[in-house]
């Protein structure tokens, strides 16, 4: 938290050495206004611009601090491997295995902490600007802008709590009195921190319109969806397995999930007709998108490089793009999870035998169509384009990370890329909340409150959309696909319904950066991941072994449910922050 203070001290020290005359007397100071930047006083006098600056932080990230959190939510799970040139490429490898995760490794965690708090700071400054200078706009606009900023602050804080649990709550009042470095990270419990986030989203919900004239701004429906997500998180427990899971369900919170998802279900948002269309840039602000981080390419906004998505810059397929670094690689376990028998998932036997489809060579093994929209595989067109068919050469290190590639987060190859050697980026939006995600939250809450048939209806609607998502984009895989709807008998108990909901959520939301957080919420992370490590370390694709590094992996309960507070933050404010359990 003291990075800026440290930088000021270093700058003053260098200046003292270079220009000693300026520092010869403690009574004489030279005040020089910085050049090329706007003064804080002038900036705070423009509240609407301060709100815009808060919005700008949504996409102001980088692969070492990606706000879409693909290393935190996917690489830590059974859905994805880190990828790249090997386990030492970037510092994310401890996320793959958990056993080597410490407060200083990966050091990328400190960047994430710092930049998320920079985002919170912008929100706090905007709130102060609105309070002090909001008379420059009409009262209604002022209230809406305040609601937008509180939505944004809650969004950033949700990420902070999701990763670290114990974080300092720094709001506009702390900013006013400059007490950031006196604010402890253990002043509030998990539930109390979540309630503060809920309070911000509730203010947004009460004061935002259902639709905004300018695209990308938060609205009432997005606030309702986020409230549902918060209550669903809280409903299962505090995240630590000893106090999380079926035995700890808060039905009152579950009912709140139903209440707020009802608002979403009765809004103008809805299911996009074809699953594949959800992840094409031309549809990025469709009715499926409730709230998304807005990105663009240079053709859309007439700039040199556009407002590119730099969080996904490493995740293009090797030798498919000018600069595809082959990160965020699907696991064999995830591919196996898409197997079907009689059109339904193979819950108990899906991972008994390794399998993968080969284009033009159907077998008795059938697959959920969403596999072909989610995972790039050798012999299949890359993102539906036959002229860019994948081969085994499109994997950078197959002996470590296998041959699969991530599809959802990239555009079609023919649509081009933003390229500035040695980096590339895409104009793909990052979904924060999409309609199907929220409906799965609704189904989850329905199951836990006893409305099993209502949940079956939602899940079958989602499966029907998947069934309808073959001919338009993946006709080449039509003879390999089979998916059917669940009969009533599959939802005649909470246990059976819960399993199907959790399976459906994995298939629908695969590689969308949230799998670990789902496992943690349900209280099954250790059971799922340690079993996964034992099997996945023996992965083989056409004779090529890979993923053997999972032999060193282990998830420890009472510790790994949350990430360690970065050491540098503990160092900056010694004695103020408490480290998370187990680290």
Query: What's the overall average pLDDT, rounded?
Result: 92
Instruction: Characterize the main sheet.
Output: 3 strands, antiparallel
Radius of gyration: 24 Å
Q: Specify the overall morphology.
A: globular
Major beta sheet, strand line-up: 5-4-6
Which second-level CATH architecture of the domain at 63-100 and 264-569 applies?
A: Alpha Horseshoe
Report the portion of residues in β strands: 5-15%
List the total number of helices. 21
Distance between the termini: 20 Å
Quick tags:
single chain; 583 residues; mainly alpha; Serine Threonine Protein Phosphatase 5, Tetratricopeptide repeat; 3-stranded antiparallel beta sheet; two-stranded antiparallel sheet; 21 helices; 15 strands; 8% strand; disordered N terminus
